[in-house]
Amino acid sequence: MRAVLMAGGSGTRLRPLTCDLPKPMVPILNRPIAEHIINLLKRHHIYEVIATLHYLPDAMRDYFQDGSDFGIQMTYAVEEDQPLGTAGCVKNIAELLDETFLVISGDSITDFDLTAAIEFHKQHKSKATLILTRVPNPIEFGVVITDKNGKINRFLEKPSTSEIFSDTVNTGTYILEPEVLEYLPANTECDFSKDLFPLLLAKDEPMYGYIAQGYWCDVGHLDAYRESQYDALERKVQLDVAYKEVSPGLWVGQNTYIEPSAQIEAPAVIGDNCRIGARVQIEGGTVVGDNVTIGADANLKRPIVWNGAIIGDEAQLSACVIARGTRVDRRAHVLEGAVVGSLSSVGEEAQISPFIRVWPSKKIESGAILNINLIWGNTAQRNLFGQRGVQGLANIDVTPEFSVKLGAAYGSTLKPGSKVAVSRDQRNISRMVTRSLIAGLMSVGIDIQNLDATAIPITRTVIPTMGVVGGIHVRVHPDRPDYILIEFMDAQGINLSKSKEKKIEGAYFKEDMRRSQIQEIGDVAYPSQVADNYCTAFENCLHIDSIRNSRAKVVIDYVYAVSGAVLPQMLDNFGADAVVLNASLNKSTMSAMNREALLTQLGHVVEALKANFGVQVSANGEQLILVDESGIPIRGEMLTALMVDMMLTSNPRGTVVVPVHASSAVEQIARRHDGRVIRTKANPTALMEACHKNPNVVLGGSGDTGFIFPELHPGFDAMFCIAKLIEMLTIQERSLASVRSELPRVIHKAYTMRCPWTVKGSLMRYLVETHPAQNLELIDGVKICQPYDDSWILMLPDASEPLVHLYINSNDREWVDDTLRDYRARVQMFIEKEEEEMVAEV
User: Fold this and answer.
1) What are phi and psi of 627, to 5 degrees?
2) Which of 25, 109, 468, 652 could be joined to 419 by an S-S link, Cβ 3.0–4.6 Å?
């Protein structure tokens, strides 16, 4: 026997799930509805299937192909011009139906006994047998009434409440004899229930109804879609699950890793190649597709998550549907009944309200609260550039496709034939992204100076000497090891200004990118002696004789991420002794805990070797933590103060540039040396620009960002910092411990609080309005200064996350503790009040 699988509908009431997918291909337990129907047909020994297609026909053809992989023979009939209706599409293939055949809807889940229904059809010598079932609410379906022998006396398609005369309904599954198709006109739209069956009734053709026992669900709307999943998990319907049942009611696919601390309640399905993070809570009734990543501490309460979705840390999903390839970022909430269409993204701390529908390929901004269906257009795009370059999750946000487009967008803001220097760290992910950027640049006629794996200080030093209009450096993010950071530089090696970043963003989002002809495609060159040029510039900025006379011994820890390790050889040439630790490249990410362990190890080695000091180098050669001769770490505000003290001792009346949140110890040290302090915004570009524009700057940066030595190049450079320290300690005849002991004693504390994006602006305005103007500094965030000393508190909104940072600074510890406690409470109270008002407005 042959079966006709009717798969032509567009599933209007299942939107947005069916915008880019025909209804029979919507997944139930991670397999298309049509596949469950085929499994049912096979259980009843029906192996020849003809699928009638109209809406997005390629989706089904590409999935099932000839059916051999599914144990059937599959052929297709496509309604090319217009839909012909349920009966018209079958009439269209009448020449293929020369014996009793079965018609089954492609949008229902059932485990009916088809064999018994076919036997009933044959026994009653029926021309058309409708498979019926009884339902509590028949309004949505065609109602049928039969006599005691099963012969159909009357039916009504989708009655109103007053018209209901039976609870027995048409399931859209029929057993037909081929001659009934002769009643239908060719190439005309017609329907079984509206046209053919009333005609057969009028002609008194034998037409019967078989009332089937078992499960049936017409997956015609979103509520039914969710319920069918839950019913399948609870075994109310017999469906084949594609995964191994690892424990009662828990099915898990192959190559799936679940952190031991995750808690999963049955019944649940988790597909192939999934990654379930630490402390994830999965409630019974949850369905997770193939290739899904769920971040730590996420909470899933009966959602249906399709293949390829990415769920961020601490995300909350409640009885919702997350379609194919969608990303839900950290702490976002998708509430009960909501549906997010395929390839959409939900930003950090965003909330999608109950029963809201988001159509495919939409973007919900971080912190947004969505209370209306998102159908047309996109939400506002977030900026490509953050506080520091372009950054995102490696191979998820920053992919080869993204990088090619980004390279083309950047190149399109430059003149054809311009040269750009490109460099990277030594990670494979950075190599992949860099090659994609290069391809995009070449496609718009930009020539490349490829510096390959190079420490970023080397890149910044050589860019001004190469005749390039700018540079790009790609690396693993210094603070987030799962992120990629792409930094763009101008011809001086300084990070691009905001106006130039906006031009690149404009070209990217408008896709306003030129295409070069074959002869205009960019070229790639590999300049030589890049490291040598850096070393020459390096030496020219030092008193080499002082270093040679020092016979210093330094221990350098590269934390398994060595890049451009030219320093040990240079120090050796200068007569200093450099002991190198952990210089091999470790492909795994280095956690903060591992770095702390290595820092402790570094302190022990420094003590054992009686070295002058140790240094842990990170961020591709930009940042460092010092360890003094006693093995004690020097970092953060203490490191900032130490470097400022040593540089101003060597350069009295010099100028130092520090970020707005740096400790007031900097001003106290500057007063000792008649120096000047310039404070800037907290972002690295602002520090670089201030160091470049202001005269007599001898040092810029901080212990958190790294240090800038403008005489060498405009960026942060840990390698030069180490050599400069050796020089200064020798000339000043000091040790790190002695310098540290002379630093001002300033109490400086930091505290970070959650602050929704929607509240940040009003919080800053509240602080400005509730404090005297003469006590405020508005360089970056809101700094509230005490008029009588160096005490202050700074509220600094985070540029890339829904957070606000509190910095408190004073010589008085009690004042710091009291002020921190007071402002924490004030900020928390303000945030809660704002959120309550927003909820009330909704």
Assistant:
1) -130, 125
2) 468
